[in-house]
Automatic annotation (TrEMBL), chain A:
InterPro entries on file: Beta-grasp_dom_sf, Mopterin_synth/thiamin_S_b, Sulfur_Carrier/Prot_Modifier, ThiS/MoaD-like
Top-level taxonomic group: Bacteria
Gene: cysO
Protein name listed in UniProt: Sulfur carrier protein CysO
Length: 90, 602
């Protein structure tokens, strides 16, 4: 199923400058794997040791996947995935 | 108690008080005591410098405070400068309306900057430079304090527009228990946060939304918390919440009054001076190149700092001419990617770090530590803000690095100083513990302190000031040192028992006009009478709004300035402030509106 992914400024060099790209997958993990095939290197910026990178927040619609099932969070057609760099304490 | 320059044989002369900003003169005097300088005498002439530093090895050094052409200093007060330079706007984001912090914040910041510039000039002289005159623009100091927010509001792409009063002032931290006790929560990790709210039976979806706001409060100065979170806490007594927080690994700090802070065992030492310095080995700094245009040219600083306090200290040192090398983890500081970004870097990060070189070092590896030792061999200052105990754990403490460079100033910009508090020492936990939050709350009509990172900024200024003092001490007496400062020390200085009280004003407020907000602050009878003349009637606060609605803020400001009444436009939107021609002399342009050095040296 197709999901739109909102790409933060710093990852746009990897997506040929696009702010919004489409990707497929049943879960966030599958979707990131599929994104990485089209835009090599993006996975390494989002995921480390099969966990969301400590300084990245990923939202399915408005929900932070760390407060759902992490990379196993299920996504549905029409969902919007947003990546936001976020560091606590400043 | 250690006052850095106490044994240095320094004296100083104070200048005439600014008529409408006596707290700035009081803060200059307070800082001189903290530094250990002997007060020689006062000069009463109105055009005398704000301070002169005297020492047998120095040509007399004088520092003047200067206004901007359209913001004259004699018509500036703590209140009007907080309005003109955006502090009211940032503090207002989460406090309901544009309003002052209610503490002598800009007096403290600018007193620290004035001494910092003076001490740096003295270092420059001793290193062969010809610096005798320093000037400091307090408006520049004020703008520096909100530099990151200004960057965020003026980025070319994805600029933030966060206005005063847009959020409910009661739906933000601090939190409230069933018995009405106010407290801060702190964690830098999402999982303790999630466990805590799960224990409170708040859904993951809500806890996740709260986390995003909570996480970003440092950057955005807003943190609207979902009603479900606030309601869940309001049903439980504090003791129960404390137990749950402890179980889940979330720190909880109850808001205390300034009086409670004054009664702490560690308070007297902290109030005596915000720095603790210990001499290191006897050592004369290496070969010197005389500084030409800025006093700290030729001084090299290694900075291993995250977030605001430490990086701001490093930024100030670059403005004084020092070469600052940032040590960042492999891959770079994650804050580089925080939006809004321009040219591949967070503008907020850039505002504090663009004048520095960067070297990526893995401080946890033996190779990385060896690299730091090697870099220290050519450095004058090592500045870090690691968690307590980490420097010792990494074998990068003062004694370790003095082995590589005996003349090094090993500086730590920490959180709690000597206080034993079981919580991360961050801006908001320290505001709560120190009484700053309570003081700001009572002045602002809110529950808690400011979400403007007031202590990180002041702590950074204090750290840089201490480093300048330690460099001066080293030039005179030839030894390395270890220097600690903290957010709590900065807070104690801000709420100083003797000089921290706000000036009483005959009339003070932020008023709507036909176009824009106007801040007015009549500190003297003469100013009050002048305002009466401007208005054509006694300035009764009840009728003022009606009267001021007759003309624009700009027109009223012109009239007030001509009559000698301290007033300023209270900008609500930082993007509008960035375009104010009055502030232009203190601003620059990068991919966002940047802030220039507040000092000049001749």
């Amino acid at each position: 199923m197709s999901v739109s992914v909102m790409v933060p400024t710093l990852l746009r060099p990897l997506t040929e400058g696009q702010k919004k790209v489409e990707a497929q997958g049943e879960t966030v993990r599958q979707l990131i794997d599929q994104l990485d095939q089209r835009y090599p290197g993006i996975k390494g910026r989002l995921v480390h040791d099969d966990q969301v990178h400590r300084f990245v927040n990923i939202y399915v619609n408005d929900d932070d996947i760390r407060f759902a099932d992490g990379l196993a969070t299920v996504i549905a057609a029409g969902d919007r995935l947003t990546v936001l760099p976020a560091v606590a304490g400043g | 108690m250690s006052r850095i320059l106490q044994q240095g044989g320094f004296a100083w002369r104070s200048g005439a008080c600014l008529p409408a900003w006596q707290s700035l003169s009081a803060a200059l005097a307070r800082h001189s005591e903290c530094l250990g300088l002997r007060h020689q005498d006062s000069q009463a002439e109105p055009d005398s410098p704000a301070l002169q530093l005297l020492h047998s090895d120095l040509r007399p050094l004088q520092t003047r405070l200067v206004g901007l052409p359209a913001l004259p200093l004699e018509l500036s007060t703590e209140f009007t400068l907080q309005a003109a330079c955006g502090l009211m706007s940032v503090h207002g984001r989460a406090s309901g309306r544009p309003q002052a912090l209610g503490v002598n914040y800009l007096a403290s910041i600018n007193a620290a900057l004035a001494w910092q510039g003076t001490l740096a000039a003295a270092v420059g002289q001793l290193r062969g430079g010809a610096f005798t005159d320093v000037s400091l623009a307090p408006a520049g100091g004020a703008l520096l304090s909100i530099g990151q927010y200004l960057a965020g509001a003026t980025a070319a792409d994805e600029a933030e527009q966060l206005l005063p009063g847009q959020d409910d002032a009661l739906a933000r931290p601090p939190f409230v228990s069933a018995e009405g006790v106010l407290f801060e929560l702190e964690t830098l990790d999402s999982q303790p946060w999630r466990r805590f709210w799960t224990a409170l039976q708040v859904s993951d979806a809500i806890a996740g939304r709260a986390w995003q706001q909570f996480l970003l409060r440092y950057a955005r100065a807003v943190a609207p918390m979902p009603a479900e979170c606030l309601d869940a806490l309001a049903r439980l007594p504090l003791a129960r919440i404390q137990a749950m927080a402890a179980d889940c690994g979330v720190a909880l700090v109850v808001l205390r009054s300034p009086a409670q802070r004054y009664a702490d065992a560690d308070y007297p030492a902290s109030a005596a001076a915000p720095w603790q310095m210990q001499h290191g080995p006897a050592a004369v700094p290496g070969p010197r190149q005389a500084p030409a245009t800025l006093p700290l040219q030729g001084i090299r600083v290694l900075e291993s700092c995250r977030r605001i306090q430490g990086p701001l200290a490093g930024h100030l040192l670059t403005l004084l001419g020092a070469e600052v090398i940032r040590l960042e983890p492999p891959g770079g500081d994650p804050l580089r990617s925080m939006p809004p970004c321009a040219d591949g870097c967070s503008v907020r990060f850039d505002a504090l770090n663009h004048r520095k070189q960067v070297i990526e070092v893995d401080i946890k590896s033996a190779q990385g530590r060896a690299q730091i030792h090697a870099l220290c061999a050519d450095a004058d200052v090592f500045l870090h803000n690691w968690a307590p105990g980490k420097a010792a754990e990494l074998a990068l403490d003062a004694a370790d690095l003095h082995a590589s460079q005996p003349s090094l100033i090993h500086a730590y910009a920490g959180g709690w100083g000597a206080a034993q508090v079981d919580a991360p020492g961050t801006d908001f936990t320290v505001q709560a513990w120190s009484g700053v939050a309570a003081r700001v709350a009572s002045a602002s009509g809110t529950r808690g302190g400011t979400l403007f990172t007031a202590l990180d900024v002041l702590g950074g200024v204090i750290s840089a000031q201490g480093i300048c003092a330690a460099l001066l001490e080293r030039e005179l007496h030839g030894h390395g040192s270890q220097l600690h400062s903290s957010l709590l020390g900065a807070a104690d200085l801000l709420l100083d028992r003797d000089s921290g009280a706000l000036a009483t004003s005959l009339l003070q407020g932020v008023f709507a006009t036909a176009d824009g907000l106007l801040a007015i602050d009549c500190q003297t009878r003469q100013q009050y009478q002048a305002l009466t003349q401007v208005l054509g009637a006694e300035p009764d606060p009840r009728h003022l709004p009606q009267r001021l609605a007759d003309a624009s803020g700009e027109d009223w400001l012109d009239a007030c300035q001509q009559a000698g009444v301290p007033a300023s436009i209270a900008h609500q939107d930082l993007a509008v402030l960035a375009a104010d021609p009055r502030l232009a002399p203190s601003l620059g342009q990068r991919a966002y509106r940047s802030v220039q050095s507040p000092w000049s040296f001749t």
